[in-house]
Specification:
The chain is α+β, with helices and mostly antiparallel strands and 106 residues long. It has helices at residues 22-36, 53-62, 75-85, 98-101; strands spanning 5-8, 41-45, 70-74. Helix 1 (22-36) runs antiparallel to helix 3. It starts with a strand and ends in a 5-residue tail after the last helix.
């Protein structure tokens, strides 16, 4: 966490699961964690490469303010953008352990 942002410096998902809404479930969990920490936004740090084009597409679909290296998703619109980007909105469920919501994630 940096200020009002929950910062995601690295996020790795197998190519086999990308496009199957796993990324949507992960984002739903990150939204819950950020909300539990009173953050105002999620900030994804992005490093361009040939292998992470699917993640770039996902970030572009859900995040607003973008630069070459950073995508920002305001929490007040996060759930709406997540559902708009989903093939089948709400097809996933996320249950968080209480200690994870408040833990320090590095």
């Amino acid at each position: 966490q940096e200020g009002n942002s929950l910062v995601v410096r690295a996020m790795a998902l197998s190519c086999a699961v990308l496009g199957k809404q796993v990324e949507h479930a992960v984002l739903a969990a990150l939204i819950k964690i950020a909300a539990g920490r009173a953050c105002r936004q999620l900030e994804f740090q992005y490093r361009a490469s040939e292998r992470n084009q699917p993640m770039l597409g996902f970030l572009m679909a859900v995040a607003g303010n973008a630069t070459d290296e950073k995508y920002v998703l305001p929490l007040d619109v996060a759930e709406a953008r997540l559902n708009a980007a989903a093939v089948s909105a709400g097809a996933w469920t996320v249950e968080m352990a209480r200690d994870l919501e408040n833990s320090s994630v590095h």
